[in-house]
Amino acid sequence: MKHRHPTRRQLFRQAAGSSLVCALASPFCDALYAQSRGRSYTYDILVKGGRVVDPSQGLSGPRDVAASGTRIARVARNIPESQALHVLDARGKIVTPGWIDIHAHVYDGVAPLAIPADPNWIAKGVTTAVDAGSAGAHTFPGLRKYVINVADTRIFALLNISVVGQSTLSPDNPWGELLDLRYANVALAAKTLERHKDVIVGMKVRLTRNIAGDHDLEVLRRAREAADAVGLPVMIHIGGSHSSIQDILKLLKKGDVITHSFRGGEGGILDDDGRIHDEVLAKVAEGVNLDIGHGAGSFSFDTAEKALEQGLKPGTISSDLHQFNVHGPVFDLATTLSKFLHLGLSLDEVVERVTVNPANLFGAMKGLGSLKEGAEADISVLDIDSGSFELVDALGAKRTGSQRLRPVATVKAGKLYGAASYPVERL
To answer: The whole model's pTM is what?
Structure first.
């Protein structure tokens, strides 16, 4: 009989006799040890000896982090190891709240660009991912049943205004989900938002001309109407649209999100002279969030450098990781964060944009993005490698970075996950 390798979920179940799980081979798994049984402990897990960076508390320095059950119990110096059932040695490492990636695509097998959640997010430092519009009203029940409800990564979603979600566009079928306005069903979208409001955090609309045609403003109005009906924000994908960025921005309000905000090419945040459009600055001042959404074609070093020189920083940093960029130039969220370290953001600023800032965008994420006592016990542990690292943007432009973030362990809701090595097959 042919030997079958265990599935990832089976590996979790096979982990022996512990309230914590070390899912995959990792040096960090060896650092986790159970102390003698038969006695009670104050904490279930103790992350010991790391540099804690938690912007939600203005904290950046040596601390230990202890969790009981699914909650952070204590953050302090020199918590005794004897008080914890499990101890994770984080000496020489960075310890942050669990990362949140608000632009992901995890509807693997339905949306042509989507990839499996767990090997690409929780195994790489991300405890929470937001699927950005892979599903619409007709396809969302499947996303919930077959992905959200079973993945180890905590997954929220932005609902596509198209009832079919992102199931139409691929390299072999160049027809976007909103070319036919009849698929932009406001009543059905609002009904789906209300029914799944525990996991759907807003609406998503892609405005590129090959997706929304010449009626981009109308599909945005419909997404706006559905979102407003239940009090949720809208995320828009900008660039290459029929309408101007100025006209598109008129339909946005406080709490909405512009993803691909540092993209190159037409329809972006810069004018022909490389200056930030006044309308963009005005919307940011009103409370519209600029998100990165790196993707396969939506992040430019040149745009980023010009925006940062003018004092404009993104509110959140996300990967837009999918089938067509997971082998480069994105690879993972950590690589995108490393690019912003190269661009001059501090470690604390980078961490802020994948923890407390995204958590504050969406009401359903309350309690995430922080290591405060009582918060969800989501913890990312990482190394910062020093050296010479080639960094490539979505247009092929290259920079050489001196630092690289490398996740080594992830704790989500009090459970430990190791690193991943599962390949992703191209279509």
So the answer is: 0.91
